[in-house]
């Protein structure tokens, strides 16, 4: 299948990164969040997603000089300002010793040279307990935890193959059962298994073949429903396969949904409302757009070089 032009792929990421940079202050936790403690984990999730995206951009090396500057600015902002140099994660780890969230967020920042010894000590203490291994979570989430442990140099607290086998994707069931929440389980299984696209060869050949067979139908369905957030994640999955399963038309349709300022709606058209309301609704699909663009652009450029 033909791939989309690298210029189109790059443009999606460039616009998305510009929007994220312009709205970086809205990732910040409010004084009310910190005072009450309510919803801190949910409010930290976008910060962790931001760190993952900056790690992908740095790894893939497809950003131009302006993008690179924006990415560095966002990364410094996330670590120094949003997370108080890691102190916020360390405090959350102390308050909720068995929460995997601080470790999951810290892992990408650790890979980019950020360190917080106090947080690492607290994580080490939690991991020394039987309770850490007894934590019940979705199998795809378990893969994410094991990957985070590996990224900061720890021996994973479980078996990756067993965790993968327990996922929906690992069982390769009937492809017509892919409802919305299952589709997100599929994409995140791939993300965690491949370390956010860094090691696509970790996808077993039989699962890669399963995905290649059914991705065109799945993406056609979600594009018809104009679910851009999920479609973006499925485009990342396609970039992780040995050979792309999707044609250029799917990327062109996805790119056409992006707003002129770089934001990507979750589904349908851009939402209306206050700046804060719109941010809450579109920050995730816009982060996904930056992720998908980096992966697809890198893949396209690598294919051009190989040809």
Automatic annotation (TrEMBL):
Write down a Pfam family by its short name.
DUF6895
Q: Tell me the ranges covered by the DUF6895 domain, including all copies.
A: 14-294
Instruction: Output the InterPro entries linked to this UniProt entry.
Output: DUF6895
Protein name in the entry: DUF6895 domain-containing protein
Species source reads Actinacidiphila polyblastidii
Its taxonomic placement starts with:
Bacteria, Bacillati, Actinomycetota, Actinomycetes, Kitasatosporales
């Amino acid at each position: 299948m033909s791939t989309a032009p690298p210029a189109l792929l790059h443009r999606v990421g460039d616009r998305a990164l510009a929007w994220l940079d312009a709205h970086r202050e809205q990732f910040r936790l409010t004084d009310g969040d910190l005072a009450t403690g309510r919803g801190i984990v949910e409010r930290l999730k976008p910060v962790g997603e931001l760190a993952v995206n900056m790690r992908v951009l740095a790894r893939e090396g497809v950003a131009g000089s302006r993008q690179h500057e924006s990415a560095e600015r966002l990364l410094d902002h996330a670590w120094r300002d949003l997370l108080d140099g890691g102190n916020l994660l360390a405090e959350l780890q102390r308050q909720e010793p068995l929460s995997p969230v601080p470790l999951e967020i810290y892992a990408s920042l650790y890979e980019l040279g950020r360190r917080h010894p106090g947080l690492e000590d607290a994580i080490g203490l939690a991991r020394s307990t039987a309770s850490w291994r007894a934590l019940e979570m979705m199998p795809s989430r378990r893969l994410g935890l094991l990957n985070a442990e590996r990224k900061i140099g720890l021996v994973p607290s479980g078996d990756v193959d067993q965790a993968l086998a327990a996922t929906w994707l690992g069982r390769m069931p009937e492809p017509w059962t892919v409802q919305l929440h299952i589709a997100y389980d599929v994409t995140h299984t791939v993300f965690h298994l491949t370390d956010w696209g860094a090691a696509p060869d970790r996808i077993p050949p039989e699962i890669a073949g399963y995905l290649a067979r059914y991705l065109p139908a799945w993406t056609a369905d979600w594009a018809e429903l104009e679910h851009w957030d999920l479609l973006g994640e499925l485009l990342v999955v396609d970039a992780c396969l040995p050979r792309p399963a999707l044609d250029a038309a799917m990327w062109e349709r996805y790119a056409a949904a992006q707003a002129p300022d770089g934001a990507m709606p979750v589904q349908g058209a851009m939402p209306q409302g206050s700046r804060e309301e719109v941010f809450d609704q579109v920050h995730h699909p816009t982060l996904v757009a930056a992720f998908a663009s980096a992966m697809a652009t890198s893949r396209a450029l690598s294919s051009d070089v190989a040809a």
